[in-house]
Amino acid sequence: MTTGRSGYPEPVERLIESFERLPGIGRRTATRLAFHVLKGSREEARTFSRAIEDTKERVACCSICYQLTETDPCEICTDARRDASTILVVEQPRDLMSIESTGIYTGVYHVLTGRIDPLAGVEPTDLTVGALFDRIEDPARNSRGVEVREVILGLNPTLEGDSTSLYLAEELARRGIRTSRLARGLPSGTQLEYASAAVLADAIEGRQSLGESTS
Questions:
Q1: Counting beta carbons within 10 angstroms of the beta carbon of residue 105, is it exposed (0 to 12), middle (13 to 18) or buried (19 or more)?
Q2: Alpha-carbon torsion 18, 122, 75, 186, what sign?
Q3: Is 40 helix (H, G, I), strand (E, B) or coil?
Q4: What DSSP character marks residue 92?
């Protein structure tokens, strides 16, 4: 029997190392997860494996808004009932889902897939900022070919989120686009995904203008 560096059988060691590669998972937690898989039935393991395979094979980013989707463009971008002239910018797909749960926002989205963080080496070019500007400058790149008239900045109220919002607000002003941001009913330092539907609804309804456009 081949054993890994810790004395576990080689397949178990590889499973532990695979879990260790996940964000926020240390060696101890990875080992516990691996043994949970071992204790489960073969069918549970197959279901887990199939879920991973299906996610990699069937889910990708929407080519317009970068939301996770099984169809491209996604259902939100192609929905004629949505106001494609208004784009709400968020950091991650989970933020989009939190806002969607309120049922109050009827525009479309743009997912940055992160936020500007120079200390971590994350610059605007590492995000989907360029694609956002493309949607504004060329209606054909936006949902259903609609011209963009307003951008709502819905980034998390953190230092990095605020810095990213400031950068985007300045760039959008240069492009003559009306820009607003979610109202500060959101406590500073929190994440959108943890805010209640009521708080998010109030933040959307009470969004604040970041200055008039130059158009």
A1: buried
A2: positive
A3: coil
A4: S
Q: Which domain holds residue 17?
A: 10-58
Check whether residue 22 and residue 81 sit in a common domain.
no
Number of domains in the chain: 2
Question: Going by DSSP bridges, is the β-strand pair 83-90/107-111 parallel, antiparallel, or unpaired?
Answer: parallel
Q: Read off the pLDDT of residues 34-76 as tens digits, 9 standing for 90 and up.
A: 999 999 999 999 999 999 999 889 999 999 999 999 999 999 9
**Which strand (E) or helix (H) includes residue 152?**
strand 150-153
Contact present, 173 and 179 (Cβ < 8 Å): yes
Torsions phi, psi for 89 (to 5 deg): -95, 125
Distance, CA of 110 to CA of 151 (rounded, Å): 9
- For residues 152 and 88, the answer to whether their CB atoms sit within 8 Å is yes
Q: Are 148 and 139 in contact (CB under 8 A)?
A: yes
Please say if the pLDDT value at position 187 is more than 60. no
